[in-house]
Amino acid sequence: MTPGRFITFEGIDGAGKSSHIEALAGWLRSRGHTVVMTREPGGTALAERLRELVLHTTMDALCEALLVFAARRDHLVNLIEPALARGTTVLCDRYTDATFAYQGGGRGFDTGVLGQLELWVQQGRQPDLTLWFDLAPATAAARRGAVRAPDRFQSQDEAFFQRVRAGYAARAAADPGRFARLDAEAERETVWQQVQAAVEARPWW
Ligand code: TYD
């Protein structure tokens, strides 16, 4: 059995990745792949409970990092690893790059500690491909518009999202073979073409 592929979607809030996850799932299914869509923090019953806490409860950056990694551990063990072992392609809305970008870049938490947690929790499991929807924080803020009840991240200012973006850029520079940077300033159809091109360019289909 060929193991499934693990594809993650990253970018600042308002980058517009959600509709492309759905579209890519449909596109891969039409080519005969079995696909599961999931998200972080979340994806399992426990991880979804942790997500509620992380998004809506005041806590410091270490607590935030520990909770997102705890959620990730449960998600990996109970959903991601079994799916990949069955040959299912996993499309995941955010993964560890988000922790480096948000807790590391945005909150300024020690990325050395995040690296230790990453090793410990993931035991080497990294995405096969990470689609990074990159755009200016001002554009993303305009797209987000007025969210009625913003969570603890959506309510952050532009400077925070500048740091998050820089966090993503650093992760992409450290692992250029895994990342595909997409110009998310472009129109949706153009972004979708970039998604397809990045996925098709992989040698493993
Ligand atoms: P997301 O699902 O993209 O938000 P939405 O439901 O608004 O589309 O992501 C939830 C938030 O969690 C997002 O603002 C980023 C944050 N986050 C972290 O801070 N660290 C992490 O490790 C992850 C996975 C997400």
What is the fold-level CATH name, i.e. the topology?
Rossmann fold
Poorly predicted regions: none
Let me know the largest β-sheet: 5 strands, parallel
| Strands, total number | 5
Count, helices: 8
Mean pLDDT: 96
Give the helices and strands as they follow along the chain.
Answer: EHEHHEHHEHHEH
Shape: globular
CATH architectural name:
3-Layer(aba) Sandwich
Total number of domains:
1
Characterise the protein shown here.
With 205 residues, the chain is α/β, with parallel strands linked by helices. It has one domain: P-loop containing nucleotide triphosphate hydrolases (Rossmann fold, 3-Layer(aba) Sandwich). The chain is 54% helix and 13% strand. The protein is built from eight helices and five strands. The protein has a five-stranded parallel sheet with strand order 2-3-1-4-5, sandwiched between helices. α2 packs antiparallel against α3, α3 runs parallel beside α5 and α4 crosses α7. The longest helix has 25 residues. It is globular. The protein starts with 5 loop residues before the first strand and ends in a 5-residue tail after the last helix. The mean pLDDT is 96. The site of thymidine-5'-diphosphate has 12 residues, from α4.
